[in-house]
């Protein structure tokens, strides 16, 4: 029997099966490469779980991992492998912004706050909804007319732009069309802040000025008459001394 097994092990098919089995075992039991570079004391790693029965779907677990001791880690989030994610850590490393791509014209977001050590918790479960509700309120549009809430598609793109250097603000940009069923009716690069210090969304004079052309930018997207627009790439820090004196942004 032993000699028979040895003979089988050297056949091409047997060796190939062994290699495939070993490769699958390695992938399922080892983390994927970190999606972002080390950010001070921690990094974020993705780990593929076992494939679900009768489906091609695989769950991905995202872990906050200590750079000094890789054995120390905390679960951050879980999502199917059909959702593509990226992370943006605040300069003070107390916040993690997660960008989630669900498919065509659908990009969501989640914001996590550090509780202690490597443990982060979502600020609120409906962060994406809150973003589009704020947009509708500022633009004076009924909630039912905002594409994200129209039907079950959750259409709309939330783009991460930048963290402010003091970590008190994260700058986001919105892109969405299909208002009232018209593809060219929408906004392109409509900006807003989430103020981590105050725990709310807000606009400043700088963002209001940029947002004035958001509807036209979408309407004329790709056309010569669209004109040149300098995209915002930085977030304004909160001036503590100005705020303490009762000054306005």
Mind summarizing the main beta sheet?
A: 8 strands, mixed
Mean pLDDT: 79
Q: Helical stretch count?
A: 6
User: Low-confidence parts lasting 5 or more residues at pLDDT below 50?
Assistant: 1-13, 15-32, 244-248
Beta-strand content estimate: 25-35%
Integer-rounded radius of gyration = 23 Å
Number of strands: 11
How do the helices and strands follow one another from N- to C-terminus?
HHEEEEEEEHEEEEHHH
Estimate percent helicity: 10-25%
How many angstroms separate the termini? 82 Å
* Count of all domains: 1
Structural class, by secondary structure, is alpha+beta
Overall, the morphology is globular
SSE map:
Layout: H1 2-9, H2 12-29, E1 42-48, E2 59-66, E3 73-80, E4 84-89, E5 95-103, E6 106-116, E7 119-122, H3 127-139, E8 156-163, E9 169-176, E10 187-195, E11 200-202, H4 205-211, H5 214-219, H6 240-244
Parallel strand pairs: 6-8
Antiparallel strand pairs: 1-2, 2-3, 4-5, 5-6, 6-7, 8-9, 9-10, 10-11
What is the compact description of this entry?
By secondary structure, this protein is α+β, with helices and mostly antiparallel strands. The chain has one domain (30-227).
């Amino acid at each position: 029997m032993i000699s028979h097994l040895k003979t089988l092990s050297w056949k091409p098919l047997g060796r190939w099966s062994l290699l495939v089995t070993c490769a699958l075992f390695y992938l399922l039991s080892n983390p994927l490469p970190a999606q972002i570079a080390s950010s001070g004391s921690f990094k974020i790693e993705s780990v593929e779980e076992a494939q679900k029965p009768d489906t091609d779907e695989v769950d991905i677990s995202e872990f906050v991992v200590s750079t000094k001791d890789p054995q120390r880690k905390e679960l951050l989030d879980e999502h199917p492998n059909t959702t593509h994610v990226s992370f943006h850590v605040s300069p003070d490393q107390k916040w993690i912004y997660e960008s989630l791509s669900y498919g065509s014209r659908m990009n969501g977001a989640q914001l996590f706050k550090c509780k202690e050590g490597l443990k982060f918790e979502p600020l609120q479960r409906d962060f994406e909804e809150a973003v589009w509700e704020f947009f509708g309120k500022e633009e004076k549009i009924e909630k039912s007319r905002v594409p994200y809430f129209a039907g079950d598609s959750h259409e709309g793109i939330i783009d991460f732009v930048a963290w402010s250097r003091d970590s008190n603000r994260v700058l986001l940009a919105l892109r969405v069309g299909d208002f009232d069923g018209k593809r060219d009716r929408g906004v392109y690069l409509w900006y807003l802040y989430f103020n981590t210090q105050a725990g709310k969304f807000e606009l400043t004079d700088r963002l209001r000025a940029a947002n004035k052309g958001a509807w036209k930018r979408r309407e004329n997207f790709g056309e010569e008459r669209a004109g040149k627009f300098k995209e915002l790439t930085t977030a304004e820090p909160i001036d503590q001394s100005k705020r303490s004196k009762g000054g306005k942004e």
